[in-house]
Specification:
Number of helices: 20
Helix content: 55-70%
Shape: globular
Strand content: 5-15%
Distance between the termini: 88 Å
Order of helices and strands: HEEHHHEEEHHHHHHHHHHHHHHHH
CATH class of one domain: Alpha Beta
Largest sheet: 5 strands, mixed
Number of strands: 5
Oligomer: single chain
Length: 418
């Protein structure tokens, strides 16, 4: 560092001050090394998971509400290292805490949620305005100690630059939290390319995700459709519309939007691109070999992705490869022991392999975790049918009555009569 010239009259004083300055600088440097060493010991591991809090928005502009959290989620989920708690899991944990699903996650509530869900840290984001510029902050906090694991603050010259700035800050945060430079560089599609350059489209998409978690696909659909109207190149938006129609059992419409997402898959992160491609081969073209290959590529890049294992198992089952399906399904259970699909699918594979005791044991494990869905009851009905247990079959028929899946129960009864 260049030192300014000191007047002759002050040089005696300078000689006195220099040793003190050196001591202070040395202390600051030592403190910096101490801080870095503490942060290094507090870095996350691949076994740790994190919660995303909602952004604190002091700009007065509602366009950033929900939108920036969605963008940050996309940015961080590009990482094969970080394990971000899914929105479904957040919603389920909030219900356990007797909180509404859509409750705003303040840092205080995020900390409480970490404790309940067994997460190590939460990330709090903020945005404020400074004239025509915007200041964004990200802070990863150890929920137990309250210590900052890492933090970033960046400036955006205009509203149109906010996503770009947020993406850059998220990339740096990934490295500070313990991810290798190699994977940060490999999986780091700029946010505007991974999502959309339109904040309005991303806002609509974010509202759709929120509506889907709280009220289901029929409520989410108009928001997702609005997102792709605002940006016709929004690949994730088309995928979301496809998912909505698929959930509503409108498979023809779902295929139409999955196809469009596939055509635009270069406008997505690597993770999203793999999911879009797999959906296309699995649902639209029925090319199961290509679907299986894509799921295997997904697993190779993101080895802790339980959904990829689960879907790979389904593809293997559709091909009649039930042993492989079971293996993939059990991998999914190991990665996400609280996901009901991790138990229902292996139970059905066991039925197909005529391993009825194994199927019952898998269902018992799911029920012990208080998990339930209609696919689980399909398996229970199948076991009752194969055992000629009319009482158990009637019990399962009763479960379907009055539920949205009642038609599935009627189909089982029809097949039984046939």
């Amino acid at each position: 560092m260049k030192v300014a010239e000191v007047p002759v009259a002050d040089r005696k004083l300078w000689k006195v001050l220099v040793p003190a300055v050196v001591v202070i600088v040395a202390a600051v440097i030592a403190g910096a090394f101490y801080l870095r060493s503490r942060q290094a010991t507090q870095r996350l591991t691949e076994k740790d998971s994190i919660v995303l809090a909602d952004f604190a928005n002091s700009t007065g502009d509602a366009i950033f509400d929900d939108t920036l959290k969605t963008a940050l989620s996309v940015a961080l989920n590009q990482s094969p290292f970080l394990n971000v708690l899914s929105e479904n899991k957040v919603a389920a944990t909030l219900q356990q805490m007797s909180r509404p699903t859509g409750t705003k996650l303040t840092p205080e509530l995020a900390r409480e949620l970490c404790q309940r869900a067994g997460n190590k840290a939460y990330i709090a984001g903020s945005i404020g305005s400074l004239g025509s510029e915007y200041v964004l902050g990200l802070k990863a906090v150890n929920y137990q100690s309250g210590d900052a694991l890492a933090q970033e603050q960046v400036m955006a010259a205009a509203k149109e630059k906010v996503l770009d700035a947020l993406g850059g800050a998220a990339s740096k945060l990934r490295g500070e939290l313990g991810e290798s430079l190699a994977t940060v560089q490999k999986f780091d599609v700029p946010l505007e390319q991974a999502t959309t350059s339109s904040l309005e489209a991303l806002k609509a998409y974010s509202l759709g995700r929120k509506a889907s978690n709280e009220n289901g696909s029929s409520v989410a659909l108009p928001y997702h459709q609005r997102a792709i109207e605002l940006d016709p190149n929004f690949a994730m938006g088309y995928g979301a519309v496809g998912d909505d129609y698929f959930s509503l059992n409108e498979l023809g419409r779902a295929s139409e939007y999955y196809t469009k997402a596939f055509q635009l898959r270069e406008h997505a992160s690597e993770r999203e691109k793999l999911e879009i491609t797999a959906n296309y081969y699995d649902t639209v073209t029925g090319q199961l070999d290509k679907a299986a290959q894509t799921y295997q590529e997904w697993i190779a890049s993101y080895p802790r992705e339980s959904a990829a294992y689960n879907r790979l198992g389904v593809v293997f089952a559709l091909q009649g490869q039930y042993e492989k399906a079971t293996e993939a399904g059990m991998q999914a259970v190991g990665l996400a022991p609280d996901a009901v699909s991790g138990y229902t699918n292996p139970a059905n594979y066991a039925v197909a392999l005529q391993r009825f005791d194994e199927a019952r044991q898998t269902i018992k494990e799911a029920q012990a975790r208080k998990m339930d869905d209609f696919i689980l009851h399909n398996a229970l009905y199948a076991l009752a049918f194969l055992g000629a247990d009319s009482g158990a079959m009637a019990e399962q028929q009763e479960w379907y009555t009055g539920k949205p899946e009642e038609n599935a129960g009627l189909a089982l009864a029809s097949d039984t009569e046939a």
